[in-house]
Amino acid sequence: MDQSISEAQADMRDGYYSGAAGILASALAWSIAAGVALTGSAERSIWALLLGGMLIFPVSILISKALGARGTHTKGNPLGQLAGASTFWLVFSMPLAYGLGQQKPSWFFMAMLLVIGGRYLVFATLYGMRLYWVLGLVLAAVAIALAFLAAAPAIAASAGAATEMVFAIICLVQHRQSLRQAVR
Protein backbone atom coordinates (compact mmCIF):
# COMPACT_ATOMS: atom_id res chain seq x y z
CA MET A 1 0.00 0.00 0.00
CA ASP A 2 1.40 3.38 -1.01
CA GLN A 3 1.32 6.11 1.61
CA SER A 4 0.47 9.71 0.90
CA ILE A 5 3.00 12.30 2.04
CA SER A 6 0.78 13.34 4.95
CA GLU A 7 0.32 9.69 6.01
CA ALA A 8 4.08 9.11 5.78
CA GLN A 9 4.73 12.23 7.88
CA ALA A 10 2.18 11.12 10.47
CA ASP A 11 3.90 7.74 10.62
CA MET A 12 7.26 9.45 11.20
CA ARG A 13 5.75 11.62 13.96
CA ASP A 14 4.15 8.58 15.60
CA GLY A 15 7.26 6.46 15.33
CA TYR A 16 9.78 9.00 16.60
CA TYR A 17 7.71 11.19 18.95
CA SER A 18 7.75 13.95 16.31
CA GLY A 19 11.54 13.83 16.40
CA ALA A 20 11.66 15.30 19.91
CA ALA A 21 13.68 12.32 21.12
CA GLY A 22 16.32 12.99 18.46
CA ILE A 23 16.56 16.67 19.30
CA LEU A 24 16.94 15.74 22.96
CA ALA A 25 19.64 13.15 22.20
CA SER A 26 21.48 15.73 20.11
CA ALA A 27 21.21 18.30 22.91
CA LEU A 28 22.80 15.74 25.25
CA ALA A 29 25.70 15.19 22.82
CA TRP A 30 26.23 18.96 22.58
CA SER A 31 26.08 19.22 26.39
CA ILE A 32 28.78 16.59 26.83
CA ALA A 33 30.97 18.37 24.27
CA ALA A 34 30.41 21.66 26.09
CA GLY A 35 31.38 20.05 29.39
CA VAL A 36 34.56 18.68 27.88
CA ALA A 37 35.35 22.07 26.32
CA LEU A 38 34.94 23.71 29.73
CA THR A 39 37.78 21.53 31.00
CA GLY A 40 39.97 23.34 28.49
CA SER A 41 40.39 20.62 25.88
CA ALA A 42 39.04 21.88 22.57
CA GLU A 43 40.32 18.82 20.66
CA ARG A 44 38.63 16.43 23.08
CA SER A 45 35.41 18.43 22.90
CA ILE A 46 35.43 18.04 19.12
CA TRP A 47 35.83 14.28 19.51
CA ALA A 48 33.12 14.25 22.19
CA LEU A 49 30.65 15.79 19.74
CA LEU A 50 31.73 13.50 16.91
CA LEU A 51 31.40 10.38 19.06
CA GLY A 52 28.25 11.62 20.76
CA GLY A 53 26.82 12.41 17.35
CA MET A 54 27.25 8.78 16.31
CA LEU A 55 25.09 7.79 19.28
CA ILE A 56 22.26 10.25 18.64
CA PHE A 57 20.12 7.86 16.60
CA PRO A 58 20.35 4.85 18.93
CA VAL A 59 19.85 7.06 21.99
CA SER A 60 16.87 8.73 20.31
CA ILE A 61 15.31 5.31 19.70
CA LEU A 62 15.64 4.51 23.41
CA ILE A 63 14.16 7.88 24.36
CA SER A 64 11.32 7.42 21.84
CA LYS A 65 10.45 4.04 23.31
CA ALA A 66 10.68 5.40 26.86
CA LEU A 67 8.17 8.09 25.84
CA GLY A 68 5.82 5.47 24.42
CA ALA A 69 6.60 5.75 20.69
CA ARG A 70 7.68 2.84 18.49
CA GLY A 71 11.16 4.21 17.78
CA THR A 72 10.81 3.32 14.11
CA HIS A 73 8.72 4.10 11.05
CA THR A 74 6.64 1.54 9.20
CA LYS A 75 8.29 -0.52 6.51
CA GLY A 76 7.86 1.09 3.12
CA ASN A 77 7.50 4.63 4.41
CA PRO A 78 8.98 6.64 1.52
CA LEU A 79 10.32 9.28 3.90
CA GLY A 80 12.66 6.73 5.44
CA GLN A 81 14.91 7.12 2.40
CA LEU A 82 14.95 10.90 2.81
CA ALA A 83 15.98 10.47 6.44
CA GLY A 84 18.80 8.18 5.34
CA ALA A 85 19.95 10.57 2.63
CA SER A 86 20.09 13.45 5.09
CA THR A 87 22.19 11.28 7.41
CA PHE A 88 24.70 10.65 4.62
CA TRP A 89 24.83 14.38 3.91
CA LEU A 90 25.60 15.00 7.60
CA VAL A 91 28.35 12.36 7.62
CA PHE A 92 29.85 13.71 4.39
CA SER A 93 29.99 17.20 5.93
CA MET A 94 31.83 16.10 9.07
CA PRO A 95 35.35 15.93 7.55
CA LEU A 96 35.00 19.53 6.41
CA ALA A 97 33.86 20.61 9.88
CA TYR A 98 36.70 18.64 11.44
CA GLY A 99 39.22 20.29 9.09
CA LEU A 100 37.92 23.70 10.08
CA GLY A 101 38.27 22.69 13.72
CA GLN A 102 41.93 21.88 13.13
CA GLN A 103 42.43 25.47 12.00
CA LYS A 104 40.41 26.96 14.85
CA PRO A 105 38.47 24.66 17.23
CA SER A 106 35.44 26.92 17.58
CA TRP A 107 34.94 26.77 13.80
CA PHE A 108 34.17 23.05 14.13
CA PHE A 109 31.20 23.78 16.38
CA MET A 110 29.96 26.62 14.20
CA ALA A 111 30.22 24.42 11.10
CA MET A 112 28.35 21.61 12.84
CA LEU A 113 25.61 24.04 13.89
CA LEU A 114 25.20 24.99 10.22
CA VAL A 115 25.26 21.37 9.01
CA ILE A 116 22.80 20.19 11.65
CA GLY A 117 20.62 23.23 11.04
CA GLY A 118 20.49 22.29 7.36
CA ARG A 119 19.55 18.74 8.26
CA TYR A 120 16.69 19.98 10.41
CA LEU A 121 15.32 21.83 7.38
CA VAL A 122 14.94 18.39 5.77
CA PHE A 123 13.14 17.22 8.92
CA ALA A 124 10.45 19.84 8.22
CA THR A 125 9.47 17.60 5.29
CA LEU A 126 10.06 14.32 7.16
CA TYR A 127 7.74 15.25 10.01
CA GLY A 128 5.54 17.85 8.31
CA MET A 129 6.28 20.33 11.07
CA ARG A 130 7.20 24.02 10.72
CA LEU A 131 9.09 23.73 14.02
CA TYR A 132 12.00 22.22 12.09
CA TRP A 133 12.22 25.21 9.76
CA VAL A 134 12.53 27.44 12.82
CA LEU A 135 15.05 25.13 14.52
CA GLY A 136 17.22 24.88 11.41
CA LEU A 137 17.23 28.62 10.85
CA VAL A 138 17.86 29.38 14.53
CA LEU A 139 20.88 27.02 14.56
CA ALA A 140 22.23 28.75 11.44
CA ALA A 141 21.71 32.18 13.03
CA VAL A 142 23.43 31.02 16.23
CA ALA A 143 26.41 29.75 14.19
CA ILE A 144 26.73 33.05 12.33
CA ALA A 145 26.40 35.09 15.53
CA LEU A 146 29.04 32.95 17.24
CA ALA A 147 31.38 33.46 14.28
CA PHE A 148 30.98 37.24 14.48
CA LEU A 149 31.60 37.11 18.23
CA ALA A 150 34.63 34.82 17.78
CA ALA A 151 33.15 32.61 20.50
CA ALA A 152 35.28 30.04 22.29
CA PRO A 153 34.57 26.32 21.77
CA ALA A 154 32.87 25.98 25.18
CA ILE A 155 30.51 28.87 24.34
CA ALA A 156 29.76 27.49 20.86
CA ALA A 157 29.06 23.97 22.16
CA SER A 158 26.96 25.36 25.03
CA ALA A 159 24.94 27.44 22.56
CA GLY A 160 24.25 24.31 20.51
CA ALA A 161 23.22 22.40 23.62
CA ALA A 162 20.94 25.17 24.90
CA THR A 163 19.29 25.77 21.54
CA GLU A 164 18.54 22.11 20.98
CA MET A 165 17.32 21.62 24.55
CA VAL A 166 14.82 24.46 24.17
CA PHE A 167 13.55 23.04 20.89
CA ALA A 168 13.41 19.50 22.30
CA ILE A 169 11.07 20.76 25.02
CA ILE A 170 8.94 22.66 22.48
CA CYS A 171 8.74 19.57 20.27
CA LEU A 172 7.82 17.34 23.24
CA VAL A 173 5.02 19.73 24.18
CA GLN A 174 3.74 19.95 20.60
CA HIS A 175 3.72 16.18 20.25
CA ARG A 176 1.82 15.72 23.52
CA GLN A 177 -0.69 18.35 22.44
CA SER A 178 -1.23 16.56 19.14
CA LEU A 179 -1.80 13.29 21.03
CA ARG A 180 -4.41 14.98 23.24
CA GLN A 181 -6.15 16.44 20.19
CA ALA A 182 -6.21 13.05 18.49
CA VAL A 183 -7.97 11.56 21.53
CA ARG A 184 -10.76 14.17 21.35
TrEMBL record:
Bilayer-spanning residue ranges: 21-40, 46-67, 79-100, 106-124, 131-149, 155-174
Taxonomic superkingdom: Bacteria
Coiled coil regions, renumbered to chain: none
Species, as recorded: Herpetosiphon aurantiacus (strain ATCC 23779 / DSM 785 / 114-95)
The keyword Membrane is assigned to this record: yes
Protein name stated in the entry: Uncharacterized protein
Keywords assigned by UniProt, alphabetized: Membrane, Transmembrane, Transmembrane helix
N-terminal signal peptide: none
Keyword Transmembrane: yes
